[in-house]
């Protein structure tokens, strides 16, 4: 092939300047950058315009051009954005952002033979070899002897996941790799790839090499994603690394409890997409107006075991210290950072309910009274319980102290509280994060800046340009782009992933666009806020919203604006990659949503079905399963089915069933013949009891069909629609009679059938919603 002609291009942009300077004439006076040639070791920066100093601040590909301008040759020719500050010699408050792009020639003149394979996020550099690699039962996971102890966790996890994904149970060895092996090593010679970079080489064996454990682990995620799509891996060489150091997700567990298992699954799920920052928002409260305008009635929760204030820990769901430590240990193994957040001095109702004296009389009990010294004592005691000692509960370096949405009238005391809490938490060796609020809370009281990281979420609360001027490092968390508030009618129910893919990177906060390579922006994070307490949203519903966003934002936070595929192509290919080999949070019964249907006619004993106290008797069609009560059931070979589905069965209940008699059960939900207190067919999940308003006739056969989507659940009786649980609303008692949509969704439970008195026959399951006509034909 012809070698690539290396050319130089530079782009000058004068929008969203550091301190609002817009003199493009000065920017355009910056000379061009000298062309980079093969063998160059360092960028030659242009001379500064008269009266200014041009200061290089970084690039969007530091493994190619680092902060000092040193060049590491990429695999193929690569565009790199360089970021400079142009500083006036008369006043250092006059600064301009200058962005230039250059092309760095590569080790190879072209992309090679095999095209770059699809993974999420996309590989940053690739050179294709020829042919494919296949794992076999004789393959091994081989650890470099020099790094054996450091690699044990990654090898153990990879071994199990390869077994889950491909059914191959590989042995773990140490030493030199042979043909067909997977070789793991931390002896990467190229140190410029940094903590999270790695090389992925496929030839006679697969070699994943990195400088640190985190990068090595990301390489194993690439391997698994490739195998999930095909049973062969294209030969070639990848050099992969992120553009942004922080790639995060924020989950509000304060207003809605999420099980420990969900959090553990999400560590693995995030890791599969190379997201490394899991912020857990541990306390919050609902809105008083939805709770009879009464603070004592307003929902609030703090989710961690607390011994200093025993009444603080939520009664309806919490994590023990032991569980939370184990969660962080799991996250360490999966290269994910857990960032615990304790939010004050607003969102603080959980604290003021336990110590009422610290509640604000001026702004409401969800605000701490920052004029009361006891407020400081209480919050310091709470933090101290988790960050002090030689084995603190919060094991990672980063701790989030909240600090958003406090009353603007008391800005000075709010600033003093923020400064004090930063210094207090730092005194235990922690690194502090906080929510951006200092534009909203303008004042003269100083707030510590150095080594403090700010989530900038709304530019009216913290203008990102002002925060950069103050010196804060920022995590881009813009509400108008990245906030999910399920079924609330404001912000997003589902993120606009096409718009995000095409237009957003972490360098964009609200309408402010920072330059690629600007070190002010550490990365980005998206969030789920569960503002509407009690609206029926489940863990499964949240995951349904997060999954597509996770895939797109994984790409944008790892690769920035470098999206070589069009969104429509990305969207199609992304469907081939799931949550990770050991997970099925979405309740899929077939890969890649391939058509699935299964029928259990119960005519005779089936090896797939294990019965306990259930027998085969004459049924609707030949035999059926007959049950004698709550301890009589059959285990099916599935756990549950998620959206979208249809479940059909014939049922003949006896006349003496009790309330809560069960038809189907799984760890996440129960379908009941007689819902609690109603005697109606219904279901329960996550503390919500829902019924269809229909009582199944006794001592006769009835055909039941239940369909479910991410919007709701429907019941059909004898082929005809009976009830659609899609458009029910919660009407609050506030002055506006606010209406919020009620979520009445269901992941249909399939782990066991039975637990009632009567018979059930002809069970059929589809992974699609059948039409009304198709359901009518079933009868």
Automatic annotation (TrEMBL):
InterPro entries: Beta_hexosaminidase_sua/sub, ConA-like_dom_sf, GH, GH20_Enzymes, Glyco_hydro_20_cat, Hex-like_dom2, HEX_bac_N. It holds the Pfam family Laminin_G_3. Residues 117-241 form the Beta-hexosaminidase bacterial type N-terminal domain. Gene3D superfamilies: 2.60.120.200, Chitobiase/beta-hexosaminidase domain 2-like, Glycosidases. This is Family 20 glycosylhydrolase. Residues 244-559 form the Glycoside hydrolase family 20 catalytic domain. Belongs to the glycosyl hydrolase 20 family. Keywords: Glycosidase, Hydrolase. It comes from Pedobacter vanadiisoli. The lineage of its organism: Bacteria, Pseudomonadati, Bacteroidota, Sphingobacteriia, Sphingobacteriales. Transmembrane segments: none annotated.
């Amino acid at each position: 092939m012809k070698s690539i002609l290396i050319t130089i291009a530079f782009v000058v942009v004068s929008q969203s300047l550091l301190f609002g300077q817009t003199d493009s004439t000065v920017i355009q006076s910056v000379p061009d950058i000298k062309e980079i040639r093969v063998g160059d070791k360092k960028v030659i920066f242009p001379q500064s315009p008269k009266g200014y100093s041009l200061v290089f601040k970084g690039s969007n590909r530091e493994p190619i051009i680092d902060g000092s301008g040193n060049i590491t040759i990429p695999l193929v020719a690569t565009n790199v954005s360089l970021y400079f500050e142009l500083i006036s010699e008369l006043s250092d408050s006059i600064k301009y952002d200058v962005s230039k792009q250059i092309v760095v020639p590569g080790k190879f003149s072209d992309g090679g033979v095999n095209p770059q394979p699809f993974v999420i996020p996309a590989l940053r550099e690739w050179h294709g070899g020829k042919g494919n690699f296949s794992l076999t039962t004789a393959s091994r996971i081989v650890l470099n002897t020099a790094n054996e102890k450091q690699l044990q966790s990654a090898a153990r996890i990879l071994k199990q996941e390869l077994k889950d994904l491909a059914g191959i149970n590989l042995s773990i060895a140490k030493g030199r790799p042979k043909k067909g092996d997977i070789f793991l090593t931390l002896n990467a010679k190229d140190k410029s790839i940094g903590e999270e970079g790695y090389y992925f080489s496929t030839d006679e064996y697969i070699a994943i090499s990195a400088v640190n454990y985190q990068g090595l682990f990301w390489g194993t995620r690439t391997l698994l994603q490739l195998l999930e799509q095909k049973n062969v891996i294209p030969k070639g060489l990848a050099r992969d690394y992120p553009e942004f150091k922080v790639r995060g997700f924020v989950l509000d567990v304060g207003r809605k409890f999420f099980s420990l298992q969900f959090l553990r699954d999400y560590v693995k799920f995030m890791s599969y997409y190379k997201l490394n920052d899991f912020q857990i928002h541990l306390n919050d409260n609902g809105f008083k107006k939805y709770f009879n305008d009464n603070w004592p009635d307003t929902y609030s929760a703090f989710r961690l075991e607390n011994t200093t204030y025993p009444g603080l820990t939520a009664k309806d769901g919490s994590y023990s210290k032991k569980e939370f430590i184990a969660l962080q240990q799991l996250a360490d193994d999966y290269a994910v950072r857990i960032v615990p957040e304790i939010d004050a001095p607003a969102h603080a109702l959980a604290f003021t309910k336990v110590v009422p004296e610290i509640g604000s009389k001026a702004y409401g009990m969800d605000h701490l009274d920052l004029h009361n010294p006891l407020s400081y004592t209480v919050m310091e005691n709470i933090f101290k319980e988790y960050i002090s000692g030689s084995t603190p509960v919060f094991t990672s370096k980063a701790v989030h102290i909240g600090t958003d949405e406090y009353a603007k009238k008391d800005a000075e005391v709010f600033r003093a509280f923020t400064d004090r809490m930063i210094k207090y938490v730092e005194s235990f060796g922690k690194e502090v994060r906080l929510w951006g609020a200092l534009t909203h809370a303008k004042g003269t009281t100083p707030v510590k800046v150095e080594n403090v990281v700010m989530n900038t979420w709304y530019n009216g609360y913290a203008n990102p340009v002002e925060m950069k001027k103050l010196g804060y490092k920022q995590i881009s968390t813009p509400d108008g782009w990245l906030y999910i508030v399920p079924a609330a009618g404001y912000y997003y129910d589902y993120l606009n992933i096409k718009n995000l893919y095409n237009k957003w990177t972490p360098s964009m906060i609200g309408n402010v666009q920072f330059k690629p390579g600007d070190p002010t922006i550490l990365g980005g994070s998206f969030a789920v806020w569960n503002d509407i307490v009690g609206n029926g949203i489940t863990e499964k519903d949240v995951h349904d919203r997060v999954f597509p966003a996770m895939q797109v934002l994984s790409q944008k936070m790892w690769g920035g604006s470098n999206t070589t595929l069009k969104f429509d192509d990305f969207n199609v290919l992304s469907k081939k990659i799931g949550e990770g080999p050991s997970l099925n949070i979405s309740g899929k019964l077939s890969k890649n949503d391939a058509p699935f249907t299964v029928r259990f006619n119960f005519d005779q004993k089936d090896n797939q079905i294990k019965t306990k106290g259930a027998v085969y008797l004459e049924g609707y069609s030949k035999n059926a399963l007959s049950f004698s009560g709550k301890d009589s059931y059959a285990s099916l070979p599935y756990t549950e089915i998620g959206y979208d589905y249809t479940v059909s069965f014939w049922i003949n209940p006896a006349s003496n069933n009790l309330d809560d008699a069960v038809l189907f059960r799984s760890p996440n939900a129960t379908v009941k013949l007689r819902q609690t207190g109603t005697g109606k067919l219904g279901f329960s999940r996550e503390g919500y009891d829902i019924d269809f308003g229909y009582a199944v006739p006794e001592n006769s056969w009835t055909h039941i069909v239940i369909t479910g989507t991410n919007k709701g659940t429907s019941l059909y009786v004898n082929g005809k629609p009976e009830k659609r649980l899609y458009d029910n609303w919660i009407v609050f008692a506030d002055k506006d009679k606010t209406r919020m949509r009620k979520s009445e969704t269901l992941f249909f439970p399939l782990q066991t059938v039975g637990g009632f008195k009567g018979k059930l026959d002809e069970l059929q399951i589809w992974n699609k919603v059948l039409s009304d006509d198709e359901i009518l034909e079933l009868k």
